[in-house]
Amino acid sequence: MLVNKSTLKWVMRFYPPLLFQRIWVVKFDPGFKGVHVRISKSFLNRNYNNSIFGGTIFAAADPFYPVLFHQIFTAKGYKVVAWLKSCQIQYIKPAHSRLEFKIKINDDDIDEMERELRNIGKFLRTYPVEMFNQYGELKASVLCEVYIRDLNKEKPYRNENIYE
Fold first, then answer.
1. What is the pTM of this model?
2. Of 56, 73, 78, 141, which alpha carbon lies 20 to 30 A from 115's?
3. Per its UniProt record, what Pfam families does this chain match (predicted)?
4. Which H or E run contains 107?
5. Per the domain annotation, does 159 fall within a domain?
6. Per the domain annotation, does 163 fall within a domain?
7. CATH code, domain with 104
8. Total number of domains in the chain
9. Distance CA 19, CA 34 (A)
């Protein structure tokens, strides 16, 4: 479903898995070519060592690339499924204060994806997310493998898994 930036921002802000982990969408960039996200430390996501729980950091990286790609390609008239196929995270240092990250998608990446969607019907690529504290220190690095399939391109056979 195609929505505007403001609506999606507020829906995601109050989506319970993000809200209760204190994951806050600051803003979406024009054309959904980027997002700015903040993770606030609170008693709801603090671990035994008084830092942000690793699961909260991981959960913050999870939805944004698929959401951005889905909005971009839906706006272009595609009927797509976009999801995070896998994720690898490296916790660099404990996050004792809030974290922030920004995702940017450039036009060259979008053009390449669109070519593959037209030719093959699916696209798979790994994208980075780096999370910093307010002092600019890198606290976590995440590699998100994103899968996109054009649902209008050669319908799969009944027994074929559309997510392969």
1. 0.89
2. 141
3. DUF4442 (PF14539)
4. helix 107-119
5. no
6. no
7. 3.10.129.10
8. 1
9. 20
